[in-house]
């Protein structure tokens, strides 16, 4: 199962995701996100917009690479990968 790392900013809303040894099943980003949602209800609403795409200020990576499909989350993931979900920094 892929390892999952969630930014500490989201731990206060979803403390169960603070586990450094979090591994969830899934062969695509979508499947892993669905399993995160089962563990932490409301997580998907926090990172996805009303159209079902990843929110503008949320970044999802597989290892060091940004995901390509921010709408359907179809990027493939393996047991050897780590999925990162974090908030993008913005400002001016």
Automatic annotation (TrEMBL):
InterPro entries (alphabetical): Beta-grasp_dom_sf, Mopterin_synth/thiamin_S_b, Sulfur_Carrier/Prot_Modifier
SUPFAM superfamilies according to UniProt: MoaD/ThiS
Signal peptide per UniProt: none
PANTHER family per record: SULFUR CARRIER PROTEIN CYSO, SULFUR CARRIER PROTEIN SLR0821-RELATED
Name of the molecule in the record: MoaD/ThiS family protein
Source species of the chain: Catenovulum agarivorans DS-2
């Amino acid at each position: 199962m892929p390892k999952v790392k969630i930014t500490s900013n989201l731990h206060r809303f979803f403390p169960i995701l603070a586990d450094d040894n979090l591994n969830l099943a899934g062969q695509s980003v979508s499947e892993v996100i669905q399993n995160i949602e089962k563990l932490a209800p409301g997580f998907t609403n926090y990172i996805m917009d009303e159209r079902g795409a990843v929110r503008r200020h949320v970044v999802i990576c597989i290892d060091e690479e940004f995901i390509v499909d921010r709408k359907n989350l179809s990027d493939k993931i393996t047991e050897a990968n780590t999925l990162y979900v974090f908030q993008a920094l913005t400002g001016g």
